[in-house]
Write a structure and sequence with these properties.
It contains 1 helix and 6 strands; from the N terminus they run ββββββα. Strands 1-6 form a two-stranded antiparallel sheet. It is mainly beta. The protein has one domain. Helix content is 8%, strand content 24%. β2 and β3 form a beta hairpin. The protein is elongated, with a radius of gyration of 17 Å. The protein binds zinc ion (2 copies). One zinc ion (ZN) binds next to loops.
């Protein structure tokens, strides 16, 4: 059983974007780019790069998505909790 978890944060500074963060398209619309995978809801433009509101650096949109496997986590931290069932 692989339990995959995706976290969204800036690959440069690890800033986690907030629900209230907004990006501006060239058409002028303001929206949260992570709601739409970088697609403008107004004109449909695909924004392949996303600017971090915290550090101001541009990164490819997909690099903001970080996938974690719970398998890897448990491997790094072998917590042997003795649960007597
Ligand atoms: Zn647009
Ligand atoms: Zn950043």
């Amino acid at each position: 059983m692989k339990d995959r978890r995706v976290e969204i944060f800036c690959p440069k500074c690890q800033y986690h974007p907030l629900e209230s963060d907004r990006w501006q398209c060239t058409c002028g619309v303001l929206w949260n780019t992570f709601d739409t995978n970088g697609n403008c809801p107004e004109c449909g433009k695909v924004h392949s790069d996303t600017q971090c509101p915290a550090c101001g650096k541009w990164s490819p949109h997909h690099t903001w998505y970080h996938e974690f496997n719970s398998d890897e986590v448990s491997e790094k931290e072998p917590l042997h909790q003795t649960r007597s069932s």
